[in-house]
Amino acid sequence: MKHCDFYFCLASRRPEMVFGSRGEADEFIINNGGLAVEGLGTVPIRSFFCPDCDGWHVEGDSYVDSEEDAGRDEAFEAPLPESVFSLKESRQAYSRAFVERASSTFIEASRLMSAGYIDEAEKKLRHVQAEIQSRSKDWPAEKMDELKDGLEAGLRQVAIFRESFRKLTRDIEKAKVLMSACRFDEAKELLNGVLCELDTPENGGEEGSRASELEERALSCLSLITQAEETFGDPRAEKEAMETETGTQPDTLFRQMVTNGVVIRETGRLFSEAEQLIEQRRGRAAEEKMIDIKELIKLLDGPGTKEISCSLKNRLFRLEIDLDDVLAEEKGPKEEQRRFLVRAIGRAELADGARKGGNEMLCKNFVTEARQFLARVAECKERDMVESFLLALGT
User: Fold this and answer.
1) CB within 8 Å of 359: residues ≥ 6 apart
2) How far apart are CA 259 and CA 179, in angstroms?
3) What is the tens place of the pLDDT at every residue in 311-369?
4) CA dist., res. 374 & res. 381, Å (int)
5) pLDDT tens digits, 84-101
6) Planar angle of CA 158, 208, 253, nearest 5 degrees
7) In angstroms, rounded to a whole number, what is the distance separating the alpha carbons of residues 47 and 60?
């Protein structure tokens, strides 16, 4: 006969052993060694959950060891002191407290996510998750399901908010690229979209939070755009901006915006003047304008200027072809023939390089341009050599 402590169970109206988890109850059955338990009157062979005690009991085949054991149940029919219920009440109180604490945690995590404290919110939810997992065998399935549903909803919300803030961060970075390219209207649209997204009931924007940080960055970019727009047209202000020390990121971006804006404006003016001079067949004057354009293109700076630079260089290349025609006319027919032949040779070399690099499309384009130049060159030994080289390329 093995002696154990008992607590009164309201459901069975008799004393029962109470264990904190099924594992503890099953371990007791294994370690009991098939002995009858004093006060239980049976050899325990199975465990079951009791919602009234909020714990696990053991039961087994009936076994009465003595008359003393047989009358033990009757003794428990008498009124019992409140201390008998202390275990049940403490366990139920803990259960209720944890459910309330978990519910409060879900609400707090949602508030933290709205403010941009994604990692802090996930940390709180993971703490609840760990406690639920550690007690999954202690509580009824319906209670576990309720808590798990709330936890899963919170973790899904973490993923949604994290991706939302990543997108807003990417939008701000895209706006900066557009700003450096002086595409201010597109940048404003992106930045205002970020602010609208942040200005929602879900995003609290507490000071120091991720939401507050993104809002501050978006407003700073809009302020830089306004400042740059006010600078354009004032030569003195433009010069000061272009010579600004780039100690901080906003200073660097502002300098890029003003510099690139001035380059775009001035190259546009010089292109128009050069085109007019070429139409007037004033090749030397046009050539000077184009030299100035080349120097201005070198000043372009920032991640958004690659497209601008390529566009300006392509326009310059086309203008150089027209300029060559004018200069050749000024020097006579022989000079014109020489220039076309030199340009055909240059395109043939570029085609060969493209072929070796595996770019068939680019090779084909260069060959086409080379043949266009050759078509303007009179029959000569050099022309035949270039034509043979192009044929050898097989395009």
Assistant:
1) none
2) 12
3) 888 888 888 888 877 876 766 667 777 778 888 888 888 888 888 878 888 888 888 88
4) 12
5) 444 455 555 556 667 778
6) 100
7) 9
User: Each residue of 235-261: b (16+ CB within 10 Å) or e?
Assistant: eeebeebbeeeeeeeeebbbbbbbbbb
Q: Three-class SS of residue 52?
A: coil
Sequence-distant (6+) residues with CB within 8 A of 227 are: 254
For the cut 70, the answer to whether the pLDDT of residue 69 exceeds it is no
276-296 per-residue burial string, b: 16 or more CB within 10 A, e: under 16? ebbeeeebeebbebbeebeeb
Alpha carbons 317 and 347: distance in angstroms, whole number: 13
75 C-beta neighbours (distance < 10 Å), count: 9
Closest CA to 120 of 201, 200, 210, 195: 210
Question: What Cα–Cα distance (Å) separates residue 126 from each residue in 31, 159, 385?
Answer: 35, 13, 76
Amino acid, res. 184 = F
Q: Provide φ and ψ at 64, rounded to 5°.
A: -115, 120
Q: Tell me the pLDDT tens digit for each residue of 99-126.
A: 778 888 888 888 888 777 888 888 888 8
Rounded mean pLDDT, 170-191: 93
Residue 201 amino acid letter: P
> Is residue 271 within 8 Å of 277, Cβ to Cβ?
no
309 Cβ contact partners less than 8 Å away, ≥ 6 residues apart? 297, 300
Cα separation values, 181 from 129, 221, 257, 260, 288, Å = 48, 14, 7, 7, 26
Integer Rg of the chain from CA:
42
